[in-house]
Amino acid sequence: MEKYYCTTAIDYVNGAPHIGHAYEKILTDVINRHYSQRADLAFMLTGTDEHGIKIQKTSAANGMTPKELCDMNAQKFKDAWKALDINYTRFIRTTDVQHECVVQNIFKKLVDKGDIYKHSYTGLYCSGCECFLNEKDLTEDGLCPDHLKKPEVVEEENYFFKLTKYKDAIIKHIKTNPDFIVPAFRANEVLNQLEDIQDISVSRAKSNVSWGVGVLDDSEQVIYVWIDALSNYITAIGYDIDNQTDEFKKLWPVDVHVIGKDILKFHSIYWIAILMALELPLPKHIFAHGWITIDETKMSKSLGNVVSPTSVLENFNLEYPDAFRYYMASAAPCGKDGNYSDDDFKEKVNAHLANSMGNLLNRTLSMLVKYFDGEVRPEFKKDSPLFASSLETIKAVKHHFDYFEIQEAAQKIMELVDSANKYVTDNAPWTLAKEGKMEECGTVLATVLEVMCIISSLIYPYCPNIAESMAKQLSYDITTKLDNITCDNIKSGKLISKEDIKPVFLRVDSEFADKSKK
Ligand code: MSP
Q: Which listed residue (172, 249, 298, 498) is catalytic?
């Protein structure tokens, strides 16, 4: 595989990042790190969406200029992603000058092509969604169903994009590419939305919304946030209407846009139509993940249950974000909603990462030191049914990632950990040592260590620090590509000394967590 290009949604900067934003960035980072083990180049784009009425109003309410608010909050997103070891390749801000210029050029190209036209309009605008809503989409009380707020009646002369021109082509594309929208059950929702699709407003009057990218040749209008925001996926990698960088040529089309289910319509209808109008190839996949609730309750400022991702690291006194990453990445089956709770977090990461995986490595290395002074002897045989299932697990994990089944892939890895634990219990190397069956005992230990190398590679996308610590103790090269992994990583000779054995993950200390919360 030559390249893998994945993107996240870009977050609004009218507030600080929360655990829902973090969920998406972790999922995407896990996907990107997995493909870095398969492709020559893995590229992850993330960033912030900084224009629109919401930012304009929030900044005014805080006595700041919009740019000041954007600068302050964009930094909070960058800091949070650093704390979570989100290894993005590029971070785009829609206020980047280069992005703004290309967005203006894109808009002009579509005007020149006749795909954008001016039209007087009265509509219902929800600033939460930053879009116009249809009457039939509102609740019985006339509220936006997502934000439970009454949309504003807006009467403006705006530019409109001829979405209807692309309707049939989009329907055809979705129907002929069953893995275009993931999970597949969401494709039907999109097809239903396409039934009564209208042309869409793509600009706002500057007199109502001043914080936006201006329309070239029309000082009265600013480009409506979604055209501005969606274009980030191409402007960030060097697209311009008649000048495309080598990087763009190499990376586009994108392999996957990772987004939340609430913004699927914008990505699978509006964005696809824009790309068709620009005559660009379409994304290979759009993966719509579910939403994260807190203790089974929707997060909201009014309920006061908004959880910041870094507060979880602080509350549990975690040195590395691995446990949180693992928990979030495996919080929900592909595309379904998931939940975060402190108790479940503690229970799951202690069971999987400390008791099953970390402990297995620790006790195997300790036995190697105790019985063989840390040395792998040439007479240890290394053939076991466990090797076959390890290689099968690599295949299964790759398959799950190809379908964005990130929780399911993690389950496969943990099944391999369980099999290795069972192999140790069944073969009881401590009994073999007591009975003087040293070659057999060594064979069991060497087999488990060999499998631990494979496990470290597989767990790396979720838990990069733990994986590196495992690999270090196994003298294993964690950068080995998945297709090059063999069952011959542990060489004969001294592997480790007692003082170099380190627990890779310490159990989350519940007492400490509860204390620091008070
Ligand atoms: N700015 C737009 C996206 C433009 S992409 C070209 C936006 N921003 S957002 O800040 O509201 O949301 C950013 C992402 O976070 C979206 O994919 C959204 O679905 C996701 N999430 C926001 N809250 C969430 C949860 N509670 N759970 C999981 N993801 C959620 O939409």
A: 298
Sign (positive/negative) of CA torsion 53, 59, 65, 66?
negative
The catalytic position among 25, 78, 99, 126 is: 126
Of all protein residues, the one whose alpha carbon is nearest to atom 5 of ligand 1 is 9
Q: pLDDT 10s digit of each residue in the chain, 518 long?
A: 899 999 999 999 999 999 999 999 999 999 999 999 999 999 999 999 999 999 999 999 999 999 999 999 999 999 999 999 999 999 999 999 999 999 999 999 999 999 999 988 888 888 888 788 888 889 988 999 888 889 999 888 889 999 999 999 999 999 999 999 999 999 999 999 999 899 998 999 999 889 999 999 999 999 987 899 999 999 999 999 988 999 999 999 999 999 999 999 999 999 999 999 999 999 999 999 999 999 888 887 777 888 899 999 999 999 999 999 999 999 999 999 999 999 999 999 999 999 999 999 999 999 999 999 999 999 998 778 999 999 999 999 999 999 999 999 999 999 999 999 999 999 999 999 999 999 999 999 999 999 999 999 999 999 999 999 999 999 999 999 999 999 999 999 999 999 999 999 989 975 555 544 44
Tokens 């020559």: give the residue: 40
Closest listed residue to residue 403, CA positions, set 270, 252, 284: 284
For this structure, is 352 an active site residue? no
Q: What is the SS3 assignment for 33?
A: helix
Structure tokens at 498: 């007692």
Task: Report how far ligand 1's centroid is from the alpha carbon of 103 (Å).
Answer: 21
Is position 289 annotated as part of the catalytic site? no
User: Catalytic: which of 6, 70, 131, 144?
Assistant: 144
- Catalytic site includes residue 51: no
Q: Using CA atoms, how far apart are residues 466 and 459, in angstroms rounded to an integer?
A: 8
